[in-house]
């Protein structure tokens, strides 16, 4: 990428992504994006030599602020690898990624503090909930806002609000081990939303949920996207929620193909 387009992309990163005008589109123009997610020519090879696996060959993706896109593909097609690269959990091999108005990767990381990037800018929802066993449900959700400097009472209030929206507030004082799998997953979704990150990456978030709860989760994600101008990628093969996406990326053999979705309202 040229020095000119890089400096334009970084210059756009003034302030926090949440402050971005919702009406400004990413438009797919390199260097002028001011929110959302832009991925170009992303490649990831695991290992080397004879045992190397090319999990991502060339992934191109665009998610506007305020948009929820589905990422669908068969097992082993590279979905989790893509989310882990974008979430700065693993290092890509080549390509470019822009996240919430800043280029974060261009054939190498452009952000020095990847831990802060993950903490402040990305909400993760994984298949397994990974809750902290010795904290109660409320504090599991309130922890990240507290670490980001929010007053404890306010962080707990926000946690309760999210737990209520996810229909799990009655378990607020319980420990994670006392919850069912579905309840744990809803708590982990509340936690991902707690910091109002500009980007949410969800890997099969509704897999353990019944259909009513799965739709409740998707409703929350769509509302979050709209109200906080969050850019959200949902990896799924859940037939119940796929019709709710307006745009879907199919991934096959490490390559993405965009397709229109049905965009059925879930409100
Ligand atoms: P999906 O999430 O779509 O099922 P993954 O991203 O997990 O796919 O995997 C894509 C490909 O990369 C698969 O062939 C998988 O075996 C391989 N892969 C994933 N993680 C690793 C790893 N840590 N080391 C080597 N190969 C891996
Ligand atoms: Mg996976």
Structure keywords:
binds magnesium ion; 267 residues; alpha/beta; globular; Rossmann fold; 7 helices; binds adenosine-5'-diphosphate; disordered N terminus; six-stranded mixed β-sheet
How would you characterize this protein structure?
With 267 residues, this protein is α/β, with parallel strands linked by helices. The chain has 7 helices and 10 strands. It has helices at 3-11, 79-86, 114-121, 137-147, 152-165, 181-194, 211-228, and strands at residues 37-46, 53-63, 68-72, 94-99, 102-106, 122-125, 199-203, 231-235, 247-252, 255-260. It has a 6-stranded mixed sheet, sandwiched between helices. It has a 4-stranded antiparallel sheet with strand order 2-1-4-5, sandwiched between helices. Helix 4 (137-147) packs across helix 5.
**CATH homology superfamily:** P-loop containing nucleotide triphosphate hydrolases
Instruction: Give the proportion of residues in helices.
Output: 25-40%
Residue runs with pLDDT of under 50 for 5 or more positions: 1-34
Spell the H/E element sequence: HEEEHEEHEHHHEHEEE
Ligand list: adenosine-5'-diphosphate, magnesium ion
Q: Tell me the strand percentage band.
A: 15-25%
The number of domains is: 1
Tell me the overall shape. Answer: globular
Structural class: alpha/beta
Oligomer: single chain
* CATH fold category name: Rossmann fold
Distance between the ends: 41 Å
The largest β sheet comes out as: 6 strands, mixed
**Strand order of the main beta sheet, please?**
6-7-8-3-9-10
Instruction: Indicate the radius of gyration in whole angstroms.
Output: 18 Å
Provide the residue-averaged pLDDT: 84
Per DSSP E runs of 2 or more residues, the count of β-strands stands at 10
